[in-house]
Structures are given as C-alpha cells and as structure tokens.
C-alpha cells in the first residue's frame, strides 16, 4: 500500500496547460498587500534556480505592520487562553490540509529531500499543537500565589509583553519559523515576523494559513525582504515592546540590541541552533521570554475573619 | 489686506427676498463632481518630505482646534485639553501651540482659565450643536452665553432642515442674527454639516450663503455624522472662499472638521489649501483643523523627524 502522504499525481508541469505562477505577498493586518515600495526580489532554491519573486519590504511596510500589530493586541491579549489554544490548534489543522504545498516549498527552499522536508513540516505542525496546549497552562506554571509576611493574598499572573518583532531563523525556513513564532502569540502577544531573507516563501505561505485559521488580522504580520534593511527601524520603534533576534547574525544582533535599548525593549538574543535541534521539544523558555509578571496584593480581611465575641 | 466680513454685507441686493436669494444660489455654476474628486485625489498624491514635511507638521499643529465635544466632558478633561493646547509636546518646547480649544458653551469659562496667558483661543460650539434643532431664541441665548463666558470664536450649525427645504432666507437670517450676537469680539464659524447636504451643489450654495451672511469661517462638519471633512468638500469650499474674495474683497477662513486623524491626511489638506487659495490662507487665522486625535499623530510624526525613530502612542497624552 502506498504512503498516502506521498504525492503520486503526475507532475503538473508536464501537462499542456500553462503554469499558474503564484504572486507571493506580505501578510499585514490580515490582508495580503504588496510592498508599499513596489519592490520585489528574486528567490531561488538551494541550487540557485529561480523559484518566485518575493516582496522586498521597506521601512514603511514595517511601520504599517507595527500599527496593525498594536491594533490587534488588545483583542488577542484579552481573548481567553482557551480560545487562543483553539485557534492555534486550528492553524495546525489548516497546515495539515496544505501539507504537500509546504513540503514542496521547504524542500525547494532548503534543498532537502522529500522525506526530510516532510519531517520538517510534520514537526512544525506538531509544534503548533504543542503550543496550543500551553496557552491555558502557562499561567499555572509561571504564576500563582506567593507566600508573604503580612495579611495579604499575593498573586502573580503572567501577561503578554505586547508587540513583539521576531527575526525568523535564516536557515530553518519553516520549522524554525514556527518554533519562534508560535510561543510569541500563544501567550497573547502580537508579532511582526521578518521572514528568512534567503527562503521567505514558506513564511509567506504560512500567512495564507493563518488568515484562514481564525487568527485575528494583525496578530501575526509577515514581512519578507532584506533583514538588515527592515529590522533597524523596528528595533528602534518606540511602539514595539520586545524583539527576538533569532535570525540576526552577530553584527546585526549587536546593532539591533543597541537600538532596542532606547525604550527598554525586551531582547531575546540569538542562540545557535543547528537544524537537528529544532526538532527537540522546546520547553517554555520562548514563552516566558515575552511575558511580564503582574503581582497583586489583596488584603485577606483576616481581622474580620477572626470572628467577634458577641 | 482684505477687510473682515463684519464691516459690510456684500451682495446686499441678493438677500432682498427669498426668491432673489434662491435665484442667486441656484444660479451658481454646478459642481463637476467627478472633476472635483479627481482634482482632490490628485492633490493628495503629492509627496511632502524632509524640511517641507517638518514645516507642514508645525503648521498643521498651529492650525488645530483641539476639540472635545462629549456629553462626558468634565472640567478636569477640559483643563487637561487646555494644557495640551498650550504646550502640545511637553518634552519639546519648540513644538508650536495649537490655534484653539473647542468646547461646549458651558465649558468655555473653564477652558478660558486653562489657556489664560497664552495665544490659544477658546472656541465654543453653539446654536444647539450638533443638530441645530431649537428655536432661534434658544440658539441666540446659547451664543450670548458662550460669548459672555469669554469665547473668542463661535462655531454655529446652520439649520439643515430649512436649507434642504429651500428656505434659504431663513438660514441667512439666522446666521446674520448669530453674527450679531457674537458682537465685535468673537469670530463666527458656520458649520454646514456637509455630510447632510447630499450634493456638492448644495455645499457650494451653503458656502456662498454663509459668506454672504457674514461668516468669518466656513466649516465642513460637526464631526458627529458618518461623512465629515473630505479633501473634495474642503476643496470645494476653498474654491468658494477664493471666488468670494475675488468678487467682494472679503477673505473668509475654512475649517475642515471630523475624520482627519493622521499627519498624512492633514498634509494633504494643506496641499489643497496651497494649490487652491495659496499662501494667504496658510495661517491659523484663515485655516483650521477641527480634530482631537490628529494632534497626537502630528506629535508622533514630529518626534519621528526629530529622532529618526518611530514614536508610539505611549509617548503622547491620551485624551
């Protein structure tokens, strides 16, 4: 019996009909705009064969993305954790339905064999499910009641940091991307993703999946282009609360960290992750990196609770 | 230097009777709606950058009538607004003050106190704003009240019902009466509520009617209906004040109000002003923006130009 996961259809390109090329677009505020600048750049596969043109985002696209992310933040952070979990799970469901497309795009982008690309995509889908499960559990793990020396209840609960800029890993164009994006939005942040410069197509296609998964517009905004061109203005943007430098090289990371210091953004420094390590179960670090702790002191009313003598 | 509208009523014979007034207003050339909108849209495509942008932002800030017209206005909110009008960006003393604060008549005294000692004026809406559905006596009392409290400018609404019914003389006489109630001290802005006038022809007629009646300013909207100031209706009103000055020598100001929220929008309006009536109107004595959230965006853009990084709403006051 043949593996149902393997595409056995005849190659579409061998048919007589003309091939329909896809116009890859940005994903900003729930819509699919072209770059404001009108620019595109050529994306090629691992063997330097042309694949498609991707939008070459400008600073203004980045600014628009921040506006969209800020607008979406209140609704997304205010949604129940359970609801966010359902939506993240829905992303996994939708991805499952478009698995073959992503396998092809990942194989092209990273020069992988089909089985290896399939493993990447499967792991990425499972990662959405994993983080979907965490949405309503992270609060118990990192929040809770604190013992204090006084007649108070003292409760800590995690809250999302806000608008987070995510520089997606340059090498792992899909599994790496999902591994850094999902934890950011699972906890209620909104994200601006700067896709891998060399292989942005899986990221841009992910936008189409998110748009049909009940993820509210603006919660995830995906930009493609030159990482070094887009990110400095995002790192310096006063309305961005945190930045994940996963996809920045050493020189760029330093520059961005300096720019980010101006309004005390949270910065997650790049960690060296080889392609095998993306498969490992991630742990909660990427979620807690973009959480703030709110602590509330509440009087216990213990004087009244002791009862009266009459 | 043009004289002010209050010195003499131009086109006096036009207002001799309802029928002469109607004949005059309906004799105004019809508006080419497609051409008007295309012209306004094409002026909106101008690219204003660097030093020109910095100039436009400061000019726009100095033209803002910082407005709060809510049922929930408190003296505290009006005082906060007054402080913001006087010093829009407390972290940057080079930011110009706004032109005025715009409040309801009962808040004029509070606003006057809040901007005391500065050049910021106090404008008050009056005449049963925003509907204008009250007896003339009530409207005039409303105006006198605001003027007595120290309002420098009165924003009146016209009786749209009478206008749409064709009772132009009634609208005219009401504006004349309100102008008289304003006295010599207060400038009169006449609001047409363009969103309720249905056609561009009506906007042109209302503009001329207002100017003939002695308006110091003609203003698009109350900000309380679905369609407020648009580049097209503002362009139309600017053409009216241009033609009115050419005909009578009297210069009248224009104030688009409502729906102008971003710096980009404001700059588009300034381009329309410059290209239609020229530099004579590029001054807050002759052109104003009725707005509230616009000021924050102008300030954020100003900070962006000064520092090179995008600012955010955390760095301006929320009001």
Describe this protein's structure.
The complex is a heterodimer of chains A (310) and B (319). With 310 residues, chain A is an alpha/beta fold. Chain A has a single domain (24-39, 51-302), classed as Aldehyde Dehydrogenase, Chain A, domain 1. Helices cover 41% and strands 16% of the residues of chain A. In chain A, the strands form 3 sheets. A 5-stranded parallel beta sheet of chain A has the order 7-6-5-8-9, with helices on both faces. The longest helix of chain A has 21 residues, at 114-134. The radius of gyration of chain A is 22 Å and the shape is globular. With 319 residues, chain B is α/β, with parallel strands linked by helices. Chain B has an 8-stranded parallel beta sheet with strand order 7-6-5-4-3-2-1-8. In chain B, 50% of the residues are buried. The interface between A and B is small, with 11 and 9 residues.
What layout of secondary structure does this protein have?
The complex is a heterodimer of chains A (310) and B (319).
Chain A: E1 40-44, E2 50-55, H1 59-78, H2 81-97, H3 99-110, H4 114-134, H5 138-142, E3 144-145, E4 152-160, E5 163-167, H6 175-186, E6 190-194, H7 201-211, E7 220-223, H8 227-236, E8 242-244, H9 250-260, E9 266-268, H10 285-288, E10 291-299, H11 302-305
Parallel strand pairs in A: 5-6, 5-8, 6-7, 8-9
Antiparallel strand pairs in A: 1-2, 3-4, 4-10
Helix pairs in contact in A: 1-8, 2-4, 3-4, 4-6, 8-9
Chain B: H1 18-26, H2 33-43, H3 50-62, E1 64-67, H4 75-86, E2 100-103, H5 108-114, E3 121-126, H6 136-148, E4 153-157, H7 160-164, H8 168-182, E5 187-191, H9 200-212, E6 217-219, H10 231-248, E7 253-255, H11 263-276, E8 289-291, H12 293-307
Parallel strand pairs in B: 1-2, 1-8, 2-3, 3-4, 4-5, 5-6, 6-7
Helix pairs in contact in B: 2-10, 3-11, 3-12, 4-5, 6-8, 9-10, 10-11
């Amino acid at each position: 019996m043949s593996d149902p996961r393997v595409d056995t259809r005849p190659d579409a390109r061998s048919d007589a009909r003309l091939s329909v090329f896809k116009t890859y677009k940005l994903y900003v505020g729930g819509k699919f705009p072209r770059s404001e600048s009108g620019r595109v750049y050529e994306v090629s596969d691992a063997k330097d064969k042309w694949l498609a043109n991707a939008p070459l985002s400008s600073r203004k696209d980045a600014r628009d993305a921040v506006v969209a992310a800020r607008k979406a933040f209140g609704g997304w952070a205010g949604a129940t954790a359970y609801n966010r979990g359902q939506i993240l799970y829905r992303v996994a469901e939708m991805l499952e339905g478009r698995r073959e497309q992503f396998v092809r795009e990942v194989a092209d982008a990273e020069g992988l064999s089909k089985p290896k690309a399939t493993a990447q995509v499967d792991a990425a889908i499972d990662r959405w499910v994993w983080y979907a499960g965490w949405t309503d559990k992270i609060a118990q793990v990192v929040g809770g009641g604190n013992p204090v020396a006084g007649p108070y209840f003292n409760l800590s609960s995690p809250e999302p940091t806000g608008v987070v800029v995510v520089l997606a890993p340059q090498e792992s164009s899909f599994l790496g991307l999902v591994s850094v994006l999902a934890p950011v939005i699972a906890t209620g942040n909104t994200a601006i993703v700067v896709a891998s410069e060399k292989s942005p197509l899986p990221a841009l296609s992910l936008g189409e999946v998110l748009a049909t998964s009940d993820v509210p517009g603006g919660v995830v905004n995906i930009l493609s282009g030159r990482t070094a061109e887009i990110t400095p203005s995002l790192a310096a943007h006063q309305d961005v609360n945190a930045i994940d430098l996963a996809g920045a090289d050493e020189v760029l990371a330093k520059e961005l960290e300096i720019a980010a210091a101006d309004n005390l953004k949270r910065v997650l420094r790049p960690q060296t992750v080889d392609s095998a390590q993306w498969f490992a179960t991630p742990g909660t670090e990427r979620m807690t990196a973009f959480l703030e702790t709110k602590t509330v002191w509440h009087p216990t009313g213990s004087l009244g609770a002791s009862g009266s003598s009459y | 230097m043009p004289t002010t509208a209050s010195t003499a009523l131009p086109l006096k014979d036009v207002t001799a009777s309802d029928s002469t007034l109607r004949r005059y207003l309906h004799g105004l050339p019809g508006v080419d709606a497609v051409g008007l909108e295309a012209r306004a849209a094409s002026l909106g495509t101008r690219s204003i950058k660097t030093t020109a942008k910095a100039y436009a932002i400061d000019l726009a800030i100095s033209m803002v009538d910082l407005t709060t017209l809510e049922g929930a206005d408190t003296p505290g909110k009006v005082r906060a607004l007054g402080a913001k009008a006087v010093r829009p960006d407390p972290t940057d003393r080079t930011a110009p003050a706004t032109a005025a604060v715009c409040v309801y008549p009962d808040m004029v005294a509070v606003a006057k106190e809040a901007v005391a000692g500065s050049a910021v004026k106090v404008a008050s809406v009056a005449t049963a704003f925003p509907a204008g559905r009250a007896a003339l006596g009530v409207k005039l009392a409303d105006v006198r009240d605001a003027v007595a409290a120290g309002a420098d400018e009165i924003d009146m609404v016209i009786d749209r019902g009478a206008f749409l019914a064709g009772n132009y003389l009634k609208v005219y006489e009401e504006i004349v009466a309100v102008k008289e109630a304003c006295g010599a001290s207060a400038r009169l802005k006449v609001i047409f509520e363009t969103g309720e006038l249905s056609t561009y022809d009506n906007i042109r007629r209302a503009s001329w009617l207002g100017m003939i009646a002695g308006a110091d300013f003609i203003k698009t909207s109350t900000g309380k209906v679905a369609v407020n100031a648009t580049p097209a209706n503002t362009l139309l009103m600017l053409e009216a004040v241009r033609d009115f000055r050419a005909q009578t020598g009297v210069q009248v100001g224009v104030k688009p109000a409502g729906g102008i929220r971003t710096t980009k929008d404001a700059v588009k309006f300034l381009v329309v002003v410059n290209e239609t009536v020229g530099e004579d109107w590029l001054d807050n004595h002759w052109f104003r923006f009725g707005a509230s959230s616009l000021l924050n965006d102008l300030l954020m853009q100003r900070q962006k130009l000064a520092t090179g990084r995008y600012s955010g709403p955390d760095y301006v006051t929320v009001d």
